[in-house]
Amino acid sequence: MQVTLKIFRYNPEVDKQFHYETYTIEAEENDRILDLLEHVKGYKDGTLSFRRSCAHGVCGSDAMRINGRNMLACKTLVRDIGDRITVEPLLGLKVVKDLIVDMEPFFDNYKKVLPYFINDSPLPADGRERLQSPEQRARFDESTKCILCAACTTSCPSFWASDQYYGPAALVTAHRFIFDSRDEAAAERLHIVAETDGLARCHTAYNCTMACPREIPITKAIGELKLATLTGKIE
Amino acid sequence: MSLKRNVSLATGLRYRGQGPMLTYVLHRIGGLGMAIFVAMHILASYLGGDIGGLLNDIYENWAFQIFVFFCALFHAINGLRITILDLFPKLIEHSREAIWIEWAVFIPVYGIAVFVILSTALGG
């Protein structure tokens, strides 16, 4: 089948403003959008720039807006989109070149929630791992799936308004550690997410959950954090 | 050099978030509509005279009443849905169904209200 691929283009060394370029290429229904971008870069215009790494939905490098919605280019098939495809960079982050955005504000927000395991207590007597029941592990299982692709955060209207808002990805990470029975910094993290630029800016728009390529119930995780900050209880 | 991050209203509205995004946008329009209504009310009383009378005529007009009732009713029902989901996060799994229920409540109530406003205004 023939596919019309319209791509957002911006070269900071040449362009003052962005523009779109359209390419008509042959594609299979089972081709991924990433395959089409690789084809354009390889055979039509080598200056096209985009991020990609694993190409299997694990690294989260190739999150972009495909036909107006955030998706991973490596997980999106042509048959699910149709033969007229528009590819644009993520919203709310500066465009460095073409489909590449500056991820720094995203990672700055991520760091705010202390995204690492904190436990200063001595190790168990046997000196081995800190044990956890399957139920305790299941409590935060979904939140561990985040690949930091930024599809959720850059689909959020609150983040579009202010990049000071921590965003769904950072809040999901906070959820992952707050509800981990082995971690000891839940109170500190709850205090952090209760700041003005934290949970209060989530207006339950639900875009994040719909954009997540790992199908993490993000709005639910944020809802659980909101309840935990209200009640002071982690259940 | 890089392009600024600002997301314009038009760009934001073009994001295809489907049903939940629609309710998010309508909720904001509802809030804005009510704020305009209240502001007109206050201004009409404060200014009086011809301008006050003109503002009075606008917000008492049946078309404006249909608009304001849309704003107030949608804002209230959608706000109730969000409040319930925020208080009971487990229900967020059923967010899609919650939006369908919201529309199922909103459409008949708003339909009846529009019918009453129109039959009163145009029926004489």
Short account of what is shown:
The complex is a heterodimer of chains A (235) and B (124). Chain A is of the alpha+beta class and 235 residues long.
Question: Keywords, please?
Answer:
heterodimer, A: 235 residues, alpha+beta, Fumarate Reductase Iron-sulfur Protein, Chain B, domain 2, 2 domains, 9 helices, B: 124 residues, mainly alpha, 3 helical TM bundles of succinate and fumarate reductases
The pLDDT mean of chain B sits at 92
Number of E strands of chain A? 7
N-to-C order of helices and strands of chain B: HHHHH
How many discrete domains of chain A?
A: 2
Describe this structure in words.
Chain A is of the alpha+beta class and 235 residues long. Chain A folds into 2 domains: 2-101, Roll (Ubiquitin-like (UB roll)), CATH 3.10.20.30; 104-231, Alpha-helical ferredoxin (Fumarate Reductase Iron-sulfur Protein, Chain B, domain 2), CATH 1.10.1060.10. Helices cover 31% and strands 14% of the residues of chain A. In chain A, the strands form 2 sheets. Chain A has a 5-stranded mixed sheet, with helices on one face. Chain A has a two-stranded antiparallel ribbon with strand order 6-7. In chain A, strand 3 and strand 4 (69-72) form a beta hairpin. The longest helix of chain A is centred in the last third of the chain and has 14 residues, at 218-231. The radius of gyration of chain A is 20 Å and the shape is elongated. The mean pLDDT of chain A is 95. Chain B has one domain (19-123): 3 helical TM bundles of succinate and fumarate reductases. In chain B, helix 2 packs across helix 4. The longest helix of chain B is centred in the first third of the chain and has 30 residues, at 18-47. The model of chain B has no long low-confidence stretch (mean pLDDT 92). At the A-B interface, helix 5, helix 8 and helix 9 of A face helix 2 and helix 4 of B.
